Amino acid sequence: MSEYIVRADLLGKSFPGPKRGEENIVFESVNFRLKRGEFVTCIGHSGCGKSTILNILAGLEKPTSGGVLVDGKEVDGPGLDRAVVFQNHSLLPWLSAQDNVDFAVRAKWPEWTEKHVEEHSRRYLSLASLTEGLDRKPHALSGGMRQRVGIARAFALETEVLLMDEPFGALDALTRGSIQDELIKIWSDTRKTVFMITHDVDEAILLSDRIFLMTNGPKANIAEAVVVDIPRPRNRGDIIHYPGYYDIRNHIIDFLVQRSKELSGSVRTVPVEEIKTAGKLVYPPDVNPLNGAIENGSERKLA
């Protein structure tokens, strides 16, 4: 079994330009791996294609070039091997909180009894600190509770990969912090592989093992993978006092303010022949701001 569960090779996405024959290239030659049980966030300016990459991983969009493997299988559409949490909770409005989770669990395991489905759903609702109001429909729940239900539903599917597209973006700061804590708790208990889009640098540092930094579009790419080796468990109150916290934060801010623009469109194109013959692929280099370590080169042998 490979240590990498997600493999994205030479991903590119473009759309027709205003003139015939023109192309608007959103991103190109995007290559990365996600390890089993790894929590990875992706940060970049609007328009760089972060959410499009997530949608490709989810099978909701097709890349213009390249492809994605999840656990060795090519992604060619949505599937029950991946769960998605969107910024909008996406709950079925005519079902209660409990029934929304039951509905997803029943789709994954149609042979289960109703009792088994309900017990399984309640376990994950409880992990998300939802033990009351489970008979309420989404309109009767607060925004934070709706997001908790969405997260519980996603984890209840027990997929190996969880995709999250700015799931806390519409929440106030206090609610956001509370749900971040719940997410850490559930992830620590399940150790699923998570790929999450965010604009919040502090959120990314709190949650992540690695943070992908994307250059500006058009022709965006993942320029760096910042390693966050701050010890776990982490909590919002203490992490800012960790000696290396601001080294990581300042590195990311510097990238977003300056280097993301400077590096835009400058990524080397890797011909497919090189992968086949040399068995190598260009990755975003791993960067560790705590000790200044940068991987020597960005080529590694394929797993």
Q: Would you give an account of this structure?
A:
The chain has helices at residues 50-58, 97-108, 114-127, 143-156, 173-190, 201-207, 236-239, 245-262, 272-278, and strands at 4-16, 23-35, 39-43, 65-70, 73-74, 82-85, 161-165, 193-197, 210-214, 222-227, 280-282, 286-288, 293-294, 299-301. It is globular and about 55 Å long. The chain is α/β, with parallel strands linked by helices. Mean pLDDT is 86; it is low at 273-280 and 296-303. It is built from 9 helices and 14 strands. It has a single domain (4-81, 159-301), classed as P-loop containing nucleotide triphosphate hydrolases (Rossmann fold), CATH 3.40.50.300. Helices cover 34% and strands 25% of the residues. β4 and β5 form a beta hairpin. The strands form 3 sheets. It has an 8-stranded mixed beta sheet with strand order 6-7-8-3-9-10-12-13, sandwiched between helices. The protein has a 4-stranded antiparallel beta sheet with strand order 2-1-4-5, covered by helices on one side. Strands 11-14 form a two-stranded antiparallel sheet.
Q: Please identify the structural class as seen in this structure.
A: alpha/beta
The value of Rg in angstroms is 20 Å
Q: Strands across the major sheet, in which order?
A: 6-7-8-3-9-10-12-13
Share in helix: 25-40%
CATH topology title: Rossmann fold
Top-tier CATH class = Alpha Beta
